[in-house]
Amino acid sequence: MPELSIAICDDLEAERISLARMIKSYAQAHGQSIHLQFYSSGENLLAALQGSNSIHLLFLDIYMPGLSGVETARRIRAMGNDLSIIFATTSQDHGLDSFEVRASDYLVKPFRHEDVAACLDWFFSHIPEPLRLLSVYSEGEWQKLPLSSIYYIDVYDHQSRIHTPRGMLITRRGLDDLETAIDSQDFLRCHRSFLVNLNHVTGIEGNDFQMTDNTLVPISSANLARIRSQFIDWTYIKAWSQT
Question: Parallel, antiparallel, or unpaired for β 208-211 and 167-171?
């Protein structure tokens, strides 16, 4: 499970440092695990992307010597790379350019904490499901779990138990709180004490979900018809999105 990688491409070192501090402050305050990369030109950035470097979010300065930010973005899209791009600029007159290269947003210099935070709020609420993490305090330390690794969560003895391929983690966070934090259509509350990841469901047997690890997760009898219908709808939507 890779860390979320955020890159800053700006020819001015002071601008890179200023933005990096704001991003790190946001990540620490929100419990996000990130890896920062720095590039001083569009040419250096493109060379890295042609190698093995993976970037999920890019803050890209528009006015740089050599390749401009807009031209760099065009070449990134021509490579078939769909990373999220946020332009950094001294002007707001880049609407058409942003649309052309599918930029998510732009920041006007000098950077303000609230504007950077708004961009990061958007990014972390739209990152692909396999890259999303759930932060829980368990066994005396904070642990970050990829949502994709969670089979299901149940409540036992006033504690939540998170079942994963590596075993079970126990946390005092309530199931309602965990469901809100996960905030994913892939997770379904199938019982007042169970939250299941539908990606790990192989089918329904009677009043239970059959899981990929061969366990059975109970479905509320009163809501069986509704939950069965939701699971069928989710299955069709998932299959359609992957075609």
Answer: unpaired
